[in-house]
Amino acid sequence: MMMDSKRRGWAILGVLGGMLALWFGLAAGWGVQPAWAQPLPGEEAPTPQADAGSPDTDCLMCHTNHNFRGRFANGQVISLYVDVGEFENSVHGPEGLECIACHPNTRAYPHRPDQAQVDCTTCHLSEDGRVGAVVRDLDLVVDLPYADVREMVLRINQECQSCHEEAAKEAQDSMHVRAQESGNRDAPVCADCHGSHDIQPPGQPRARVPQLCGQCHRPVFTTYQASVHGQALQQNPNHADVPTCVSCHGVHSVRGPRTPGFHNDMIAVCGQCHGDAERMARYDLSAQVYVSYLREFHGRAVNVARLAGPGPESAEATCYDCHGVHNIQPVDDPRATVHGERLLTTCQQCHPAAGPRFTTAWNRHQEPSWERTPVLAAIDWLYGYVLIPGVIGSFLLYIGLDARKRWQEKRRAVHRALLEAERELARELGADDDGAFDDEDLLAE
Amino acid sequence: MALSMMKTSSPNKTDAWERVLERLELKRRLVLRRLRQAEAWAQRLKVLPDGRRVFLRFDPVLRYQHFVFMLAFTTLAITGLLQHFSHHLWVARVVNVLGGMEALRVVHRVAALISIGVSLHHVAQILHMWVVQRRRGAMWPRWKDFQDLWHTVRYNLGLAPQRPQHDRFSIEEKMEYWALLWGQTLMMVTGLMMWFPVLVTRWLPGEAIPVARALHSWEAILATLAVMVWHGYHVHLKTRNTSIFTGYLTEEEMLEEHPLEYRRIVAAHRRVQQLRRELALIEAQMADVRTRLQGPGQPSPAPAAAALREG
Questions:
Q1: In B, residues 199-218, which contact A (CB 8 Å cutoff)?
Q2: For residue B278, how many C-alpha atoms fall within 13 Å in the half-sphere facing its CB?
Q3: Disulfide engineering: A170 pairs with which of A12, A22, A139, A253, CB 3.0-4.6 Å?
Q4: What does the alpha-carbon distance between residue A424 and residue A429 come to, in Å, rounded to a whole number?
Q5: Does the beta carbon of B88 lie under 8 angstroms from any beta carbon of chain A?
Q6: Strand partners, A142
Q7: In sequence order, which ranges of A46-138 are alpha helices (DSSP H)?
Q8: Mean of pLDDT values over A335-349
Q9: pTM attached to this predicted model
């Protein structure tokens, strides 16, 4: 019974100690990000392998002809001229890629049985009437095996993934591929953004990205160009601190606002820059906005939902729910959704009954400080440095003294019981007159 | 006795009898009040069939209040602290295992409503005690409580010969009760403010909401730690007192932990019989006087008071 309660006591002490250690651990660990939460460095994209095939000179025999044209089944005619210089300057030029790397199905050139209009003399008839070298700038139109130009682009585009596997895999879940699969032939494929023979390294300059996207997404592009980010990018086309379309929507995995996880993940996208003190210092902006948001009612819920991975979107507001999506403006700009009177309207999107005072019912993206929020700072100080250490400390002291005393008492009681038992034994064995049990008694037996 | 010797019923005499009756009535009320008090204490003593004596410590209502509040408090502490520390990755994982932040908030609010219900019931009981019963209650602070605190420390340091003897509630118990009253009030007010910010900012400046939030989370941490340390030691480690669930303490536990209350109950138990006899006597005397006041024409019945005295 006694042993049992003692062991039980130690167990409870252990749990209490653990709780205290946990509390101090939690208090000390605010803001610490484990290393494994950081994104892993991306794997190197596989280098395209140039496949040795027929020499390009064969192709260029006709495709350097400015008058070489093709006719689609729908009657549309396009130039089949290829600017070799343009190709040499593209990313694929120095790689030594040959035409058939991207056009592998064109090996049967040009003597295909289905192209009856092509015979030797069509091209090789020299001026003097003999069969010889190709006639320069021969006016020539061939039938193309495609219904129209879009079909050609879509078919040839399928060859990109034979080298760019990673990008193709990423694109599988993108909004664009989904649109393509649902039957929208105009949804962009690789060549629509990257070009064909003139492919340049992506994002050079960065201002090219929104322009490319804006070719289709016109209204969004116009809004973005007027936003604080778009304006900065227009002033410096290679501005490194400004998000372009792909910063939020992803590069090949193009995500829309309804893609699972997009809403929750966006806080980390904005926080990447707006939580970076060094970067924000360049623009005289507060870097506390992200951390203080994470401590707020909205931020906690969104952050936890984000860490759970793609799933149901948190109903709480993320950055863009208040600051606007493509039309983000500085807080002091009258156009900003969070400026002055407009902030209430923004709050009322989710809190319809909110009154004017509601807009001040939060920390306004700042950590509590003695200058700005003395009441909050005083509460933090009072509890953190006075009440909790004082109350819990004096409790522990009081309890420690009490427990020590009770332990002493228990030990003394056990000691007394032992003495008593010893005396009892001595009496039973026939003690001396002095009542003590000693060796003489044994000898006397 | 004087009563039996007065036989006439002139107007003067009638007045005198009525004064006697008034005095008897006052005395009866005094004795009755003492009897009720003694009974209230004596009721706490219960003799089991095997002859052991046990002492009622918490009546069923208090036991239900403690049980429900215990569950609500634990739920609130767990779901609240998880929300507070959700910026830690492992806490966020736990939150997501439990169903996410929104689910946690729903559970937190349901538990909060339950704890508010229990608190309001308890406050109603306190008000009933103060206003209707005109008692201050055993939790009311006394000067002795603070002396006890000091004496306990002195005894534990070996500076006093013995521990202070506790009445119904020791100072350790009272401190925890007062802390709970204060803490629950603060948590209820700040929690409701956070729950209904739109409503609150109709009357209060917006800054009240972050203040409520800071108070709510700090007080939660303080309360949880205090309960774990103070309650944990005094009712789990120091003794194994289960009376909050069973309702009763044994005679040994009572002598050890609440000797003053023990003496009070035992004395009241003895006193009840004596007070009942006194009351019966007074009532019999009053009956006699009333008979005399009804008039001389009727034959006077055998005085009940005399019969009682002889019996």
A1: 199-202, 204-211, 213-215, 218
A2: 16
A3: A253
A4: 9
A5: yes
A6: A70
A7: 56-63, 84-89, 99-102, 120-124
A8: 92
A9: 0.76
Of A196, A217, A162, which is closest to residue A79 (Cα–Cα)? A196
Alpha-carbon distance A107 to A120, whole Å? 17
For chain B, domain boundaries: 18-56+247-293, 58-137
Residue in A13, A292, A300, A407 to test binding to B, most B beta-carbons within 10 Å = A300
Q: Average of pLDDT values for A262-287?
A: 92
Mutate to test the interface with B, among A5, A313, A357, A376 (most CBs of B within 10 A): A357
Q: Which segments of A228-373 does DSSP mark as H helices, in order? A: 228-235, 245-249, 262-274, 277-281, 288-295, 297-307, 319-323, 342-348
Q: Whole-angstrom Cα distance, residue A47 to residue A92?
A: 11
Position B11 scores a pLDDT of 66
Other CB atoms within a 10 A radius of the CB of residue B139 amount to: 15
Nearest to A395 among B102, B205, B230 (CB): B230
* Domain ranges for chain A: 56-184, 255-367, 378-441
Partners of B250 in the β-ladder: B54
Sign of the torsion angle spanned by Cα atoms A22, A23, A26, A27: negative
Question: What does R_g of chain B's alpha carbons equal in angstroms?
Answer: 29
Rounded to an integer, what distance in angstroms lies between the CA atom of residue A174 and that of residue A375? 49
Nearest CB neighbour to B205, from listed A360, A380, A387? A360
Q: Decide if B230 and A307 are in contact by the 8 Å CB cutoff.
A: no
A289 touches A365 (CB < 8 A): yes
Q: What is the mean pLDDT of residues A382-392?
A: 97
Of A413-417, A424-428, A431-435, B208-212, least confident by mean pLDDT is A431-435
3 state SS of B81: helix
Shortest CA distance to A229 belongs to which of A322, A326, A331, A318?
A326
ipTM for the predicted complex comes to 0.83
Ordered strands of the A68-71 beta sheet: A77-79, A68-71, A140-143
Of the candidates A175, A314, A196, the residue with the CA atom closest to the CA atom of residue A250:
A175
